[in-house]
Amino acid sequence: MTVTSTRAYRPPAPLGGRRRPHGERRRTLTALAFLAPALVILGVFVAWPMLSALRLSFTDASGFGVEDWVGFDNYVRVFTDPAIRDSMVNTLWYTVLFTPTAVVSALLLALVLNSRSLPFRGFFRTALFLPFIVSLAVAAFAWSYLLDPRLGLINYWLQGAGIQLGDVLEDPMLAMPAVALVAVWKNFGFYMVIFLAGLQDIPASLYEAARMDGAGPWRRFTNVTLPLLSNTFAFVLIFALIAALQAFDQIYVMTGGGPYGHTETIVMEIYKSGFRKLDLGFASALSYVLLIATLLLSVVQFVFFGRREKDLG
Amino acid sequence: MSALAVTHPRARRRLRIGPVLAFVAMLAVTAFVLLPVAIIIFTAFKPTAEVNAYPPTLVPTEWTLDNLARILDELPFGRLVINSVVFAGGVTLCALVFDSLAAYALARIDFRGRSVLLIAIIASLMIPFQATLIPVYQLVADLGWINTYQGLIAPRAADAFGIFLLRQFFLALPHDLDNAARIDGAGEFRIFRSIVLPNVVPALMTLGVFTFVNNWNDLLWPLVFTNQAEMGTITSGLTLLTGPGGIIPYGVMMAGSLIAVVPLVIGFLFVQRRFIDNIATTGLK
Amino acid sequence: MTRKTTLASVGAIAVAALALAGCSAGDDNPSSDGPIELVFWHGYTEADGDVLNGIVDEFNDSQSDVHISTEINTWDVIDDTLLPALSSKTGPDLVAMPAERFPVYAAKKAFVDLDDLYADADSNLSDVVEGAKAMTVVDGTSYGVPIGFVPLAIYYDKAAFADAGITEVPADWDAWVDAAKKLTVDENGDGTPERYGIVLPDHATVGNGVWPSLIYGNGGDIVKDGKAVLDSPENAKTLAYWHDAIVNDKISPTGVDGIEADSVFSSGKAAMTFGGPWMTFIAGDAGIDYGIAPIPAGPEEQAASAIGLTLSVTNQGDAAKQAAAETFISYLFNDDNAAAWSLGSGWPPLRSGISADAVADNPTVATLSQYTSFTRPLLPGVVNSTDVLSALDELTQRAMAGDDIASLLTDAQAKVEAALADQ
User: Fold this and answer.
1) d(CA A105, CA A236)
2) What residue numbers bound the domain in which A66 lies?
3) Residues of C near B (CB-CB distance < 8 A)?
4) How many domains does the structure of chain A reveal?
5) What pTM was computed for the model?
6) What architecture does CATH give domain C153-306+381-421?
7) How far apart are the first and last CA of chain C?
8) How many CA atoms lie within 13 A of C419 on its CB side?
9) CATH 1.10.3720.10 is held by the domain B75-240
10) Mind listing the pLDDT tens digit of every residue in chain A (313 residues)?
11) Does A261 touch chain C (CB under 8 A)?
């Protein structure tokens, strides 16, 4: 079994002690050369607007016309406005519904698709990836139509089986799971493909060795697959988290935030404040609160999974 | 695998039931997953009366090309397709190049401030785009790039997600080959181009598909950054198809979605072949 | 060394090119020769758009000082793209929009004050319909002109009326509910009528106007003189009355919103619906022989909420452009064009000075114009209409679902007060 190194290359320490500056500066310059185009684009079109938004969050700007400095007023309102607090709870609930479901189902399907004993793998892989290719707005319309209490096939078929679903999108209990389901449907194919790539990177020899040691399928999964997949897993998890915290498109189309604001997420409030009420300052403040919350959650998650990475040595 | 199966008869029996169950489960899951896709396809060919009829049908009892015809009639379709291709294709090409360069540096070159830069890039993903849309728009307008291809493409020519994704794949690559090349004195870019890049083709394909699909389907971006019908993309052009009262009839909307999706599916199937080939050859080191 | 200078000069050229590109595109022509170029955004995408564009063309042809080019998108798209455009000074000079979106832009000073234009005798604006003008007033100043003002009306299926033996359109609420009961048909007795007498949406209604119309009918209101008056005994009675009619008498499907209501009516599942002039096309397409009736009078008065659109001059251009835009407005409101626009848009004329004869050609317009006297603009001058309407939606939706009306009204009143305080 070849030993593969997963650490970046470091030139061996010279005899007589380390001399950092020279090699380091060259590396930094080389790195800059590689990074330059991306940094220019990101700097101009991402970093600068983000700083603009930060500045706007301390004003009552509408985007045009007169703007006044209001200090932390917007931020205070973020935490005291009951509608905003509700949207935070809704977003958390959505995240709990979406993230584990999407990630776990993607992993499970990737595992099944990875096994060589499954026939028509190519067909399944393509079919399961198709939802990703459809735009979210269109997917939302298609699902709205399917779930329509009068015209929808799902209600019609369930009625045949004796189950009365009612108007799912107007049901305070069912609306959020429904919109989360649409997002799971749309995204799991992509996460699945990433997991597949990660799985392919695990050398078959490791499984052979484990089998020879008498490990059953579950043991092989926990001792070989999971640890070697933890990087990929952490990566997918972070993106599923970010996607969930920023949920907007399908909810806007399917429920508009209803019923009674039960599916109104933070980004919907940002959109409402910025584009409907022309309160760009407040929208920016709310966006930054979301950013900080996402950052914190990611750090927590990274620390948890980062530890596993270290265990591998 | 077969040798082991012979020596462990129990393992062999377990193999029989498992795959069957897995296959059946996959069929069920796939059917459920494809249901909305089927709805889109079938509704595109249903006359409006049947779309609103009860009991609902999956497959149209009466097929019609009216919905498609309406779209092709009312929209400058050829132009919209070209714009979609240029926009999505342009963004994808630029992003693949710039993101892979940046990801390489972040994964393989140890330099001062690397972690900080990485965190900053990831953090940029955590702000919803509704917050930065106005400042970006003002920037693009100041450059005079509204209603232009460069205005649509430039802000997205590099993206944090792509950098992060590719970095992940770069990290997973073993260092032996390129360490050897480095000791031999090869320049960093040479290593990048000749040694590392060929080994991450599946990752590049993944990112390419992701970027192309997302930009092809993006509605708000081309809508906001172009305001002339001829510069719009397919998705933004479809918003012009409203009926009385401002509502787009379902059948027409689905037909439009179908037209928007077909090129993607064809492209994906084409890339899929290279996908399979490449995924099969990596990891067998 | 040479490489560095080459790089530097390439960089300098690139920057210069960018700067030049920024200069040449977009900014207003400083030259004074050639007509003033204006951009007009509107969302009339159907045949009405052709009529409006035709008026613009005639305006352009009739003089050489001002040239207007139109950009047409749907109202929703205009709403999404107007803010970025205004923020970078690349917005239109003239913009039309639905009336409920108007106050927030006016309050943020996106539009030019038009009081002087109204006062000007030559501007053809002296006899603009009162209710229509009220839509454009925020904090006592008018920031636009109405470009569309039509009452919500009842569109009904004549064949269904004939079947049920109804010969007169109902004149008041009781007669209305009676008629609806007669029109509700449940042949197979399964509790779900094949056809309802009426489809009454309980949230996100057409132009947000169904429930305000009913509220006005019983003498109530939502916001009056800038104060929330939602919690009132009149409104409580209104909600209870209609809850009984819908739930007990089953005259309407429940849980429907405005858009679904259209398809319920056009698929023949309801004999009456609330709507605007576009219902004539929807009904026509669905093969329904339709009739138009005014919203029946409530116990206190007859009232119909208006669906409105406004036209404003933005602050984007300089004084010359604003003046030029105002000349177009006067042109649009002259006798010929006011009548032509009314006929072309299928909406009642916006000036009371336009006689009924002038619009007799379009029977829909002629009919709807008769209701103008009791047409009321929705939440005029209320900047935070977003939150007020969302509170109203929740109120009516929950009330029709059977929740306790008294506590619902208390909650809704609090929400509306908060929304008004937030402006």
Assistant:
1) 12
2) 55-311
3) 18, 21-26, 43, 45-46, 71-77, 80-81, 83-85, 87-90, 206, 259, 262-263, 266-267, 275-276, 278-279, 281-282, 285-286
4) 1
5) 0.88
6) 3-Layer(aba) Sandwich (3.40)
7) 62
8) 28
9) yes
10) 444 555 667 777 666 555 555 677 888 888 899 999 999 999 999 999 999 999 999 999 998 888 999 999 999 999 999 999 999 999 999 999 999 999 999 999 999 998 877 888 888 988 999 999 998 888 998 999 899 888 889 999 998 888 888 889 989 999 999 999 999 999 999 999 999 888 887 888 888 888 888 888 888 888 888 888 888 898 899 999 999 999 998 899 899 888 989 999 999 999 999 999 999 999 999 999 999 999 999 888 878 766 544 444 3
11) yes
